[in-house]
TrEMBL record:
SUPFAM superfamilies: ABC transporter transmembrane region, P-loop containing nucleoside triphosphate hydrolases. Pfam families: ABC_membrane_2 (PF06472), ABC_tran (PF00005). GO terms for biological process: fatty acid beta-oxidation; long-chain fatty acid import into peroxisome; peroxisome organization; very long-chain fatty acid catabolic process. GO terms for cellular component: peroxisomal membrane. Keywords: ATP-binding, Membrane, Nucleotide-binding, Transmembrane, Transmembrane helix, Transport. This is ABC transporter domain-containing protein. Belongs to the ABC transporter superfamily. ABCD family. Peroxisomal fatty acyl CoA transporter (TC 3.A.1.203) subfamily. SMART domains: AAA. GO terms for molecular function: ABC-type transporter activity; ATP binding; ATP hydrolysis activity; long-chain fatty acid transmembrane transporter activity. It comes from Cladocopium goreaui. The chain crosses the membrane at residues 21-41, 139-162, 168-187. Residues 370-598, 995-1222 form the ABC transporter domain. InterPro entries: AAA+_ATPase (IPR003593), ABC1_TM_dom (IPR011527), ABC1_TM_sf (IPR036640), ABC_transporter-like_ATP-bd (IPR003439), ABC_transporter-like_CS (IPR017871), ABC_transporter_sub-D (IPR050835), P-loop_NTPase (IPR027417).
Length: 1222
């Protein structure tokens, strides 16, 4: 393991030893060389323009004028091809790297090991694969093209300069490029690892959004909006702090980089090129050339000025190319932080693979039975659970495993599936060398995995039948668990392919899991509390069907009622310290016959099951099957929200402005905006002063004034440094403004989304992930504000000077460029808004698909569903790649035409020469140009260039506006949906002390009536038991009482404010142990006594001692002792068993002590004797239970029973219980 070579990101970009996108990289090499040559050729044509127009050599001038469009056409085509190929290389590299990582992630159950018991633990794998790989590939391709172009440009320029001026001319620019620039980088290079803080904070924020979205109903039921809002706001604040820390660390480096290597006009490169050309001209001054007077016209000025232009461009490209290379090196160092996070993941995979190869001797044996022989089971942290475990399950026999929470029931099968290593003993089972339990041994957990896909995929998981099962065949299998109508309902609603985990209740998911077992017909079925949410009739039917199909069951349970279906019981006693074993094996006095021989085919299985159905084995199990999707009723359709947004805000600018107003702007934000505007208004004058000193260098060089040239150089450096400071101040203000607006916007969206759990009620896809897009929108607005806004102000500053020097012709040419772009945009601009919106949607879906693996790692590992999950993620990622590549093709023609007509280096520079010729014709003296008029010509050229760059920015703005509009529209659509959801308020009276329901029609979102005219009353201390089969409406009634579902018109509904729920699925919030007890309230020191009592009542006081095992406290210190035990922070869902989670959830009710508490089958994973004690504790705490159950449960604790799903017109009945409290 020590000798393993450290993995490199570039390893991911190779297939069969070759880099992906090889042909494209060759194209980049060729295109970079041609681009560099064309740049020099255009510089030569510029010289021909100047000398021809000033000497009156019209033939040469017209020849240059004719050649230039062809040169810029080739340049624009090459440039756009380079950009297209660069984006394609980045996408192909990302595809190759992502596929390689996914293969490693899903092989050998690494997705489970990284989260649970591997020697390395990485929790944000989803962010690293989705975000860091994308950023790394974009950065690497950028570095590749920058470095390649820089080397090519510097090489060609240096050779041309050497040919014209000699070796001494080459020496000057390279002093700057190879000494000053590298030295400044070395002296100011920051600690690049600081940028990891930003990536870590971003990953934490993304995961927090995903977690809230996936736990939507639990958050809504528990009224945890304030708690979750605080968590999200804290994650957002951490992200802001990380970015500010990163800026502070980078400040000095970024200032020098901007000053030394900024290519923007006027930048240091232009100054170096201009003064370098001037020094070269002075060095070339010979005795035969007359000394020029600054104000005296002379024909020699034309030659000198033309030579100066050639020298300028050759020095400029030499400096720019060499500096680009060093800038690429520094950019690589910056991107290395993203790459290092991916490399850490690669190293983790290598470590896990090495550990697997160096594992203990093979402890699995192939056999026809399941047998443990002297197996000792320890947790991954080394805590012993069982010793010398020995039992055997022959085909046809059934074994039940019982024991208290945390005794090791599920741990036995983690060892059987290979998820946990065993240090002692041997295990015999069919397919002993296969990973997971999905073949002859099949594992069915309490929460079956529901993959993103079709209903057929849910049944056949982890395998996928190409094209899916035929509808009739699918309906036939689902009919065995009473879900046949789901096929028709899915067809009607167009949801054959959907996120079934969010559409199905826990009961429906368990029935679908049972259908999966029947479909697969394994030799052994491991049933881990898989019937906790179904009726006893369905439970009984499962064991009947298993016997009929020849399936031997190994069942984990708490309830003695299941013993009648088994031949043996393995009881986990928890007395490892006393007897050295912790288990005992007992034969049961059962009359259960052994299972029949296995069914040999699907046809035989159908025949047996249908015969069993005819015998009446499942009539009661399927008595009620009217449940519907569990998600809340949608308020309005997606298209309706979009129509409202577009009708309310007709233009893109209005939508962007409206999105910025989603948060309340504070005075500090307005002050930042005002200061930023002042900086942008001051910049044109500062730029003009820099240009003036550069123009002065031309004049003093022609006059051979060395002292004057040095003076101009010093003045230039002072002005350039001041301009750089102004630019950095503007950058700091724009960053701060962007962060402040994002903070205010995110805080407002968190509040709006979580208030009343509105995000859970909308039909907008991935609502919480959309909030994260606000940061991208603000980054784009910031970039456009600085670039487009800045150059537009410069254009307006120069426009009067442009008209004064050239008349109306320059203004008309600017109008012509705008008209040209209008035609290009009208006929060739693709629907960039739609493409950007779809890209964002696919990226969000990919993030959610990756994130769900974190929450379903164990059941996926048990089912060996890693390969199925990988295939679906790769299919979705392929969709993203296809969409992105198709978008690049659609944008190519538009981008090429825009670049040809509007990029300053192309056709606008041709217009530049025409405008410059017009100026020279109007202003150059008849006797020839003087050095002073050459300066005037230079400054007018800069006026033209700044005006044309402004036109370029304005004409490129519509495409960028469309991208920003797409993100703004998605945010406004979310806001509209949230507003619509918040307007639908439940009609619940909260001024009473009792629960009263009168004339309620209980129905599903699809308007299937579950109970009609429902009327009952629950008084304090008179508990009610609500019973009924699955789908009868028990949880639906709880949603109505909690205000998650509307009650309808004509209903009287009174629920006191002191009303809480313990749902079927325990929700453990991010935070310390104290937070778990006090949720949705934050744990405070004053809560310690009551929290202690609550934990004591549910038997979980031992959790306070877990700090001694190395659990980190809130501040990262080792926690020891009870006082600090409340501050434990860990992933509680991974650390606690299902029963412990349920008891911890119940402790919240005992802590808050509401008047009424809905207990929605919240003790299904708790032993029966403990379950009764917990209910008595609730009653003794003066909490009136509203108990949801499928059967008559603890009648002595309840006063009345509300039965749902009965065979009557109203579908409900109410009865008094004799033993109830009155």
């Amino acid at each position: 393991m020590e000798s393993c070579r450290r993995k490199r990101f570039t390893d991911l970009l190779q297939t069969a030893g070759r880099f992906a996108a090889g042909p494209e990289i060759v194209v980049l090499f060729v295109a970079s060389g041609l681009n560099a040559w064309l740049m020099l050729y255009k510089a030569w044509l510029m010289r021909e323009f100047v000398t021809g127009q000033n000497l009156g050599r019209w033939k040469e001038w017209f020849k240059a004028l004719a050649k230039f469009p062809f040169a810029i056409l080739a340049s624009a085509l090459l440039s756009q091809t380079t950009k297209y190929v660069q984006a394609r290389v980045s996408m192909l590299w990302r595809k190759t790297a992502t596929s390689s990582l996914l293969r490693s992630y899903f092989s050998n159950m690494n997705y489970y090991k990284l989260l649970h018991h591997g020697s390395v633990r990485i929790e944000d794998v989803d962010v690293r694969i989705c975000s860091d790989v994308r950023s790394g590939c974009d950065a690497l391709t950028g570095v590749l093209i920058s470095g390649l172009s820089g080397v090519m440009m510097a090489s060609f320029s240096t050779w041309a300069l050497y040919q014209r001026r000699g070796l001494s001319a080459v020496f000057l620019p390279y002093i700057y490029s190879f000494i000053i620039v590298p030295l400044s980088y070395r002296l100011t290079s920051p600690d690049w690892s600081v940028s990891r803080l930003v990536q870590k904070a971003n990953a934490a924020y993304q995961q927090a959004l995903t977690r809230v979205e996936q736990a939507g109903e639990s958050v809504a039921m528990l009224r945890g909006d304030e708690f979750e809002k605080e968590v999200l706001n804290r994650r957002a604040a951490d992200r802001i702090l990380a970015e500010q820390t990163n800026w502070a660390a980078m400040a000095r480096f970024e200032w020098f980089q901007h000053f030394i290597s900024n290519p923007a006009m006027p930048g240091m490169w232009q100054s170096v090129a201009s003064f370098g050309a001037a020094f070269i001209a002075m060095q070339a001054y010979g005795p035969g050339r007359p000394v020029l007077d600054p104000w005296q016209p002379n024909q020699a000025v034309v030659y000198e000025y033309g030579a100066n232009i050639s020298d300028f461009w050759q020095v400029f490209y030499a400096v720019r190319g060499a500096s680009s290379f060093f800038t690429a090196v520094e950019t690589y160092k910056r991107s290395k932080q993203n790459l290092s996070r991916v490399e850490q993941l690669q190293d983790a995979f290598a470590t896990l693979e090495s550990e697997s190869n160096e594992a203990a001797p093979e402890r699995f044996r192939e056999g026809s039975c399941i047998a443990f022989d002297g197996v000792s089971i320890d947790t991954p942290t080394g805590t012993p659970l069982l010793a010398g475990l020995s039992f055997k399950v022959e085909p046809g026999r059934h074994l039940v495993i019982c024991g208290h929470n945390g005794a090791g029931k599920s741990s036995i099968f983690r060892c059987l599936a290979g998820l946990w290593p065993i240090a002692k003993g041997t295990i015999t089972c069919p397919n002993a060398h296969a990973s997971g339990l999905h073949g002859d041994v099949y594992y069915l957990p309490q929460r079956p995995v529901n993959i993103l896909g079709t209903l057929s995929d849910q049944l056949t998981y982890p395998h996928q039948v190409p094209g899916g099962l035929p509808i009739d065949e699918l309906r036939r299998w689902l009919s065995y668990v009473g879900m046949a109508d789901f096929v028709d309902r899915a067809e009607e609603n167009g949801t054959l392919g959907a996120d079934w985990a969010s559409r199905l209740s826990l009961s429906e998911q368990q029935r679908l899991g049972i259908a999966r077992v029947l479909y697969r017909r394994p030799q052994f079925a491991i049933l881990d509390e898989c019937t906790s949410a179904v009726s006893k009739d369905m439970e009984h039917w499962l064991f009947q069907a298993a016997n009929e199909l020849g399936i031997s069951c190994v069942t984990i349970c708490h309830r003695p009622a299941l013993l009648e279906h088994h031949h043996q019981m393995l009881r986990l006693t928890g007395r490892l310290a006393e007897d050295g074993l912790g288990w005992e094996l007992v034969d049961l006095p059962s009359n259960v016959p052994e299972a029949k021989p296995p069914a040999g085919s699907h046809a035989e299985a159908h025949a047996r099951l249908e015969e069993l159905q005819k015998a009446g084995g499942c009539r009661k199990a399927f008595a009620v099957d009217k449940s519907a999707a569990v998600h809340a009723p949608t308020v309005r359709s997606h298209q309706c929200h979009l129509d409202v947004v577009q009708r309310r805000y007709p233009s893109a600018l209005q939508r962007i402005a409206a999105s910025l107003q989603l948060g309340q702007l504070h005075h500090s934000s307005k002050l930042c905006a005002a200061l930023l505007l002042v900086c942008m208004l001051l910049r044109p004058q500062g730029a003009w002063e820099v240009f003036r000193t550069i123009g002065g260098s031309v004049s003093v060089a022609m006059c051979n004034d060395g002292i004057g040239l040095c003076a101009e150089l010093l003045t230039n450096i002072v002005y350039a440094a001041g301009l750089c400071c102004l630019d950095r101040l503007a950058e700091a203000l724009s960053r701060q403004l962007s962060l402040q607006v994002w903070s205010e916007l995110a805080t407002a969206m968190h509040s709006k989304a979580l208030k009343g759990a509105a995000f859970h009620k909308v039909d907008v896809e991935n609502p919480m992930q959309r909030i994260s897009e606000a940061k991208l929108l603000l980054e784009e607005i910031k970039g456009q504000l600085q670039y487009t806004g800045g150059v537009t102000i410069q254009m307006l500053y120069c426009l009067p000077l442009l008209v004064r020097g050239g008349g109306l012709l320059p203004a008309l040419q600017l109008v012509l460029l705008f008209a040209t772009h209008f035609l290009v945009r009208t006929y060739w601009m693709p629907n960039i808004k739609a493409m950007t919106a779809e890209t964002s949607q696919i990226e969000d879906q990919l993030q959610v698909m990756q994130s769900r693996i974190r929450y379903l790692a164990e059941p996926i590992a048990f089912s060996n569903g890693g390969e199925a999950e990988r295939q679906r993620i790769e299919e979705h990622f392929q969709r993203l790649c296809d969409h992105r590549l198709n978008s690049l093709k659609q944008e190519f023609t538009y981008n090429f035409l825009t670049e040809f007509f509007l990029l300053y280096d192309n056709l606008p520079i041709w217009f530049h020469r025409l405008i410059s010729f017009n100026f020279a014709w109007r202003n150059v003296p008849i006797g020839g140009a003087s050095p002073a008029s050459a300066v005037q010509n230079y400054l007018y050229d800069r006026t033209i260039s700044m005006s044309l760059v402004g036109v370029q920015a304005l004409t490129a703005f519509p495409a960028e506006l469309a991208k920003m509009d797409a993100r703004a529209t998605r945010l406004l659509e979310l806001q509209q949906a949230l507003d619509a959801a918040s307007r639908v308020q439940p009609r619940i009276e909260s001024d009473g002390v009792d629960i009263a329901v009168e004339n309620l029609t209980l129905s599903t979102p699809e308007r299937t009536v579950l109970a009609e005219g429902l009327t009952f009353e629950v008084k304090r201390s008179e508990a009610i038991l609500i019973t009924g089969p699955n789908g009868a409406g028990k949880t639906a009634l709880a949603r109505v009482l909690l205000g998650l579902w509307p009650a309808g018109n004509g209903v009287k509904l009174s629920v006191p404010p002191s009303f809480s729920i313990v749902p079927q699925r325990p929700y453990l919030a991010p935070g310390c142990l104290g937070d778990q007890v006090t949720y949705p309230k934050r744990f405070g020191k004053d809560d310690e006594v009551n929290a202690w009592k609550a934990l004591e009542k549910v038997g979980l006081l031992y959790l306070l001692q877990r700090g001694d095992r190395g659990v980190k406290g809130a501040e990262g210190s080792e926690v020891a002792g009870v006082a600090e035990g409340w501050l434990f922070q860990c992933d509680w869902e991974d650390q606690l068993s299902g029963g412990e989670q349920q008891r911890l959830a119940l402790s919240r009710v005992l802590f808050h002590r509401p008047c009424f508490a809905v207990l929605d089958e919240c003790t299904s994973m708790v032993a029966a004797d403990v379950e009764e004690r917990l209910y008595q504790t609730v009653v003794c705490s003066e909490i009136t239970p509203v108990t949801m159950s499928q059967r008559l449960f603890l009648p002595q604790l309840h006063s009345q029973e509300l039965r749902l799903g009965v065979d009557s017109p109203s579908k409900w009945s109410l009865a008094q219980l004799r033993n109830g409290n009155s």
